[in-house]
TrEMBL record:
Residue stretches spanning the membrane: none
Location of the Transposase IS110-like N-terminal domain: 4-163
GO MF term set: DNA binding; transposase activity
GO biological process, alphabetically ordered: DNA transposition
Name recorded for this polypeptide: Transposase IS110-like N-terminal domain-containing protein
One Pfam family cited in the UniProt record for this chain: DEDD_Tnp_IS110
Amino acid sequence: MICVGIDVSKRKSTVCFMAPGDKIIRRPFDVKHTKEELQPLVDEIRVQAKYDEIKVVMESTGVYHLSIAYFLQQNGIFVSVVNALKVANFNKAENFRHTKTDSIDSTNIARYGIAYWAKLPQFDLNGDKYFLLKRLCDAYLNFSEERSRILLQLQSQLEQTMPGIFDLFGGFDINSGKGKLLDFLERYCHIEDIIAKSEAEFVSSYREWAKEKGYRSNESKAATIYAQAKNGIPSIPNNPIVRETIMW
C-alpha cells in the first residue's frame, strides 16, 4: 500500500508518498492548484498504482481542499478527506513531531492514512455538494440582506429628493428589489425632474413611460404625482452626485 498525504493550503499543496514503516517513496514536494501542476501528480499516482494499492488522504480545510479533491477523484483516484482534529489527535497519541511545516504535515497525514487504511472514508462528491449548496445559500442570504439595506437607504434618500413619493407609489418590495417606483426612478429621481415640465407635459411623459414599462397608463395618477411635486420641498439639491447615489 502507498498513501499520498497532502497538506492543503490556499493555492498550493504539499504532497508526500509513503509506504508502511514510514518508508518515504517520494519526499514532500509542492504542487499548485492548477491543471498544469496537478496532472503530473495524477500521472505519478497512476504509475504507482500499477504496482500497489494507493490512496490519497488530505485534511478538510473549508474550501481549499475541494478543487484538488475533485480533480483527483475525477481522474479515478481514491481520495479521502478527513477531519483535521483526528489527524492532530493521532499525531499526539503517536508522539510525532509537533513542529508544523507543510512537509512535516503532509508526512503525518500520510502516516495517518496508513494507520487507518481500512477505515478511510472515500471523498463524497454529493456530500460536498451539500456543503457547496450551503455556501451558496449563505451568499444569497448575505446578498439579500445587503440589497434590503440599500433599498431602505434609498427610501430615506427619496424622502429628501421627492417627499411623499414612496407612499404615493406604495413603496417597493424589499425582498425582491422590484417595483413600479424603482422603474419610475430611472426617469425621475428628483422633484425638479418633474416640475421642470408643465403638468400636461409630465402627464404625457408619464403615460408614455407607463406604456413602455407595461403599467396602466393612469392620467389621474400622473396628475397627483405632479401636484405633490409642485407642493414638495426637497432637502437635498438636484445634482449629479445625488442622482448617482440614487441611480446606483
